[in-house]
Amino acid sequence: MASPRVIAVVDDDESVREAMVSLVKSLGYSVVAFDCAESYLTFGDRSDVDCLIADVQMPGMTGLDLHSLLVADGESTPTILVTAFPDARLRTRALRDGVRCYLAKPVRDEDLQACIHSALGFELEARDGE
Asked: Are 24 and 9 in contact (CB under 8 A)?
């Protein structure tokens, strides 16, 4: 039996992070959680992460900055950004830069689930094409 896919959740708001972790676990995924982008960057098993969910607005590095840094380092982990402050220009930039989904908080469970499935499907297609 295959091990569950690993989803990383990065959000500085503890209650939001815990709710997101609970939801992702309820969908059958394994979850690792971080309170900031910098903590995620020190995580030794990033290559095991199948999808990254990150808050846009965090102290220090933003979710979009984290995504951009990972891409620049050659990491292609599908990324979903969530934000309490939706901004059309930022959404356009994020999607142009390869973010899979850009969701406004509070995130609807079915929207997050659809984004995760899309991100993992995209990743599987990329692996199959290699």
From this structure: yes
